[in-house]
Structures are given as structure tokens and as C-alpha cells.
Amino acid sequence: MNYNYRYRIEPTDVVEAELARHIDTCRQLYNHFLYELRNTDEYLSYTAMQNMLPDLKDWWDDLNDVYSKVLQLVARRVSDNLDRLKDQKANGRNVGMLKWKPPREYRSLTYNQSGFELKNTSDQPLLSLSKMGEMPIHLHRDIPDNALVKQVTVKQEQTGEWYAIFGIETETDAPKKPALDEVDRDEMVGIDVGIIKYAHDTDSTMVGSLDLEDEYERLAREQRALSRKQEGSQNWHEQRRRVARIHARIVRKRRDFLHKLSNYYAREYDLVTVEDLNVHGMMQLPSNSQNRASASWRTFVDFLVYKCERAGTHFVKVEPKGTTQACAECGVEVEKGLWVRGHSCPTCGFETDRDENAAYNVLQRGHQELGLGHADVTPAETALPTSTTGDSSTVVDAKCVVETGSPTSRTSRVSGE
Ligand SMILES: [Zn+2]
Question: Taking burial as the number of CB atoms within 10 A of a residue's CB, which of 125, 355, 372, 407 is the most buried?
């Protein structure tokens, strides 16, 4: 299995200048290969480009400063882009030639197989790169044991921040999970993705919404400041960078939260059921939050899809319509307004939290969707507390998810407040 792990790095000014210089040398080499390509009628292979390197180094001093494998990877980049172009042509698309890269479109370099080392023995982990130096790295999550780091790409974002992207490979394939018809009820989960809470599942785990209001307020403030500046001026450029940084922070926080939440479900369960985008629920939000909420929802579902696949967990997405109103026990429609937080069925007497009832319906529908027939998804005892802070429930602050990596371990639940 192959994964990418992305970490923030903080090079000193000296190392940063070196990184920028090496990247620019790579960019010039990339453009040089394009120039050579235009002088040949034929396709330039990766090997042909690689074989040019020793001669180039004779007269092009800057190339000698860059780690040799990094230069080979530039040839690889040109050759990959050529292949892609060839495919597009083969598919009948009218494509031109590869374009020269200006500095703002060429922002990274890659160390492959050698020339990099992760020093993780002191309090401050360091990334060491040959012919470059060492830089502090924020290892906010561990690289799995027995994983092999195949390559490291160092990249500067538009915001000016630097990142190291580790391409890693693990020998172990996805853990063996049971076949669909052998999944135990305890290992199934239905998730109701909500408005007030972020998620509520059939195991009574609730996850609060990630509060990014402060960040959004700041973003709006800085955007207003940007609009007052003279476009193209020095101040304008600085302000634009500031806006980009806040925006990037918001995106990072939300993705981090969704990564951890989706990881938790994919890892802990054998079958995960979630409802498809709930347009009806979305309409209850103020319009400026709707786009944000639906984007975050789609990201969550996308993450779940690939993480479940990676973990060998069965996954199904179901129709969201009516999951809140229907009684999960008997199927009767129990009308409830937004303010009604509990579900209490006059027909069968089933009582539970409103969102938990929805989560049961999600799981039930997943069952039907997968052809597993009707299942008893609700707990055997029907007299559950209707209060959302009842003993059977666990409330988890979204912040906990971001900080600890999972809402709560299923074996040792930690209650919020
Ligand atoms: Zn009922």
C-alpha cells in the first residue's frame, strides 16, 4: 500500500534560500529539457534525458550543487508530463506542447530513494536533505512502523509555507476484515451527519461541530482590508498573502478534523453506513453556511470512501430523505420539528435521541442497499434516555477529534463534559 504523509517544515532563512535556489535550478533544467525536445523530431525518453546530465554538468555549475537524484527526478517529471500529453493526443484531444515553467508554477523538488533522512530522536524532529541541510519538521502524526519512505517532496505553497510530503509504502496489505454477510452487528455503524452536532452514530457517539467562527471572522476582516488596498501595490501583495494564509489554515483545520473522524470509523468498524448529502437538512442553515457545510460533507464522504477501501471496511452511502422522521424500530413516520431533540414513537414506544434514531435508519437502509435484508439495528431495550447527555451517550468535542485523532476509543470511552 502507498500513502502520502504531509508535514509542515520550517527551514531557517539560509536553508530556505538554498531550497529556493535548488528548486529554481530544477526549473531551469526542466525548461532546458523542453528546449532539447524542440530540437529533436522524436520523442525524448527518460533515459535519453538522464544521459544528458553528465555533459550538462560540465558547463552548468549550478547543477553540481543539487543532489544528483533530484536532477534525475526532473527528467522523470518531463517524461511523465510527455506521457500524459501522448495519452491525451491518443484520445483525440487537440493538445499542444509542454509549456515553459515560470517560477510561480514550479515550486517543488523531490528526493527519491536516497539523500534524505528523518531524525526523530530529540524533542525537535529534523528532516535532513543532502546538499541542503537540516530543517525542523512537525510530525503531527507518526509514520507507521515498518513503513518504507520511498521519496520526499519539498514544496513551498502560495502562502509561503513549506511542506515535506513523504511517499511511503507499507508491506502489509489492508487488514483482513470479514466478508459482508459475516459482519457482526457490533462491528457495524450508521452515521447521521448533522447540523448542530457534526455526527451522531448508532453507538451513541456524538461529535460536535468544528468551530471555525473566529477564523472565518478574521478571514472576512482581512478580505475587507484587501479590497481597500491599491491593486498590484506592495501592500496589496502582502495583504493577499495574509488572506491566503488564513484561508489555508481554515482548510487545514477542517481537513485534519475530517481525516481523523473518517479514520476512526474506517479503522474501528467493519461496515460503515452514511447518508448521502442531506439537502433538506442543509436548507435549514443560513445561506452563507450552506456551501461550507456541503463542501465539508462531501469531503467527509470522500475520505470515508477511500479510507474504508484502504482498511478493507465495507462502505455504503444511502438516500437521506426521511431518515429523521421515520421510526427506526417500526418504520412509522413520527413528525418532528427541528426543535424536537428526542424521538418518541406513539406506535411502538421506541424512544431515543432524534439523531440516533436517524443513524439507526441510515444503518437499516445500508443493510437493505447491500441486500442483507432487514436487520435489528436498534438496541434490545427500548427505554433509552431521551436526553442527549444520558448515560448511554458519549459527547465528544470536535476539538478532541483534532487533538487526539479519534472521537474516542471504542474500548475505553472518554466522556466529554
Ligand atoms: Zn415505532
Answer: 407
The span from the CA of 85 to the CA of 82, in Å, is: 5
CA distances from 151 to 13, 46, 117 (A): 24, 18, 10
Residue 14 to residues 18, 26, 91, 138, Cα–Cα distance (Å): 6, 19, 47, 19
CA 320 / ligand 1 centre spacing (Å): 19
- Torsion angle, CA of 177/143/161/303, rounded to 10 degrees? 0
Residue 393 CA to residue 11 CA, distance in Å, equals 45
The helix (H) or strand (E) run that includes residue 263 is helix 234-268
Enumerate the domain spans of the chain. 2-170, 180-404
Interval between CA 265 and ligand 1 midpoint (Å)? 28
Q: 0.90 cut: is pTM over it?
A: no
- Residue 332 CA to ligand 1 center (angstroms) comes to 6
Q: Please tell me the distance between residue 209's alpha carbon and the centre of ligand 1 in angstroms.
A: 29
DSSP string over 120-188? -SSSS-EEEETTTEEEEEE-SSPPPTTEEEEEEEEEE-TTS-EEEEEEEEESS-SPP---GGG--GGGE
The residue-averaged pLDDT of 340-353 equals: 90
Question: Tens digits of per-residue pLDDT, 185-215?
Answer: 889 999 998 766 788 899 888 888 788 889 9
Task: For residue 198, give the 3-state DSSP assignment.
Answer: strand
- Cα(274) to centroid of ligand 1, in Å? 22
Concatenate the DSSP letters of all residues of 296-350 into one string: HHHHHHHHHHHHHHHHT-EEEEE--TTTTTB-TTT--B----TT--EEE-TTT--
